[in-house]
Design a protein that fits this description.
With 236 residues, the chain is of the alpha/beta class. Helices cover 45% and strands 16% of the residues. The chain has a seven-stranded parallel sheet, sandwiched between helices.
Length: 236
């Protein structure tokens, strides 16, 4: 892979996605963020788009390609939650989370793969969650969407693995972001008690794993699920 790569991150404006974007910028890569806000870190190109719309995804990729060249690293990070107990979860609650977290990833991966096949190189990193394999009360929709990313990465590995393209999954646990900060303190304490490391992670600790999986040194790793959860999931 080239020294200065074209990197596209979905949801690079805040939280984990922002930390990932900042890390690739620091490494000297050309970074674009596909999101709806445009509030991106310094040095990152904002390409406005909505992962639930195929034409919007295509246009955002085209803008990134025009500025930086074909995308060599895709980090599919954009996601949402609509938590609710199963018996109260509506079709809309389920469908909207699946559309963003799963079908949105499919749209982005499909758009990125053809140029990667032409280049015979590429790195695809999908941001899942410990909840995807560990489960989460009130998160049937979210857990289903995040577990399914493993199937995408492993199927993609079998399809394009011989062309210098890898596809891996990072499964973060509880991370110090606005989302966790909004939880009641007693719930945060309960979560920390369940984590062997005894703390939440910083977003950059996830970003460092993503950076490694996108590196030349990770060229023989594909179809893997890498937890960044302080031991919470223990392989689940």
């Amino acid at each position: 892979m080239t020294a200065q790569r074209s990197v596209l991150i979905t949801g690079g404006s805040r939280g984990i996605g922002r930390a990932i974007a900042e890390r690739f910028v620091a490494a000297g890569d050309k970074v674009a963020s596909l999101d709806r806000t445009g509030n991106v870190p310094e040095g990152v190109l904002s390409v406005r788009g909505d992962v639930t719309d195929t034409a919007s995804v295509d246009a955002a990729f085209a803008a990134a390609e025009a500025a930086h060249g074909p995308v060599e690293v895709l980090v599919a990070n954009a996601g949402m939650t609509r938590d609710q107990l199963l018996i109260r979860m509506t079709d809309e609650d389920f469908d909207q989370v699946i559309d963003v977290n799963l079908t949105g990833v499919f749209r982005c991966v499909r758009r990125a793969t053809t140029p990667m096949l032409r280049m015979k190189r590429g790195r695809i990193v999908l941001i899942s969650s410990v909840v995807g394999l560990y489960g989460g009360q009130g998160q049937v929709n979210y857990a289903a969407s995040k577990a399914a990313l493993v199937g995408i990465a492993r199927s993609l590995t079998r399809e394009v693995g011989s062309r210098g393209i890898t596809a891996n999954v990072v499964a973060p646990g509880f991370i110090n972001t606005d989302m966790t900060a909004a939880l009641p303190e007693e719930r945060q304490a309960a979560y920390r008690a369940a984590i062997p490391a005894g703390r939440f992670a910083e977003p950059d600790e996830v970003a460092s794993v993503v950076e490694f999986l996108a590196s030349a040194g990770a060229g023989y790793i594909s179809g893997a699920v890498v937890p960044v959860d302080g031991g919470l999931g223990m392989g689940h």
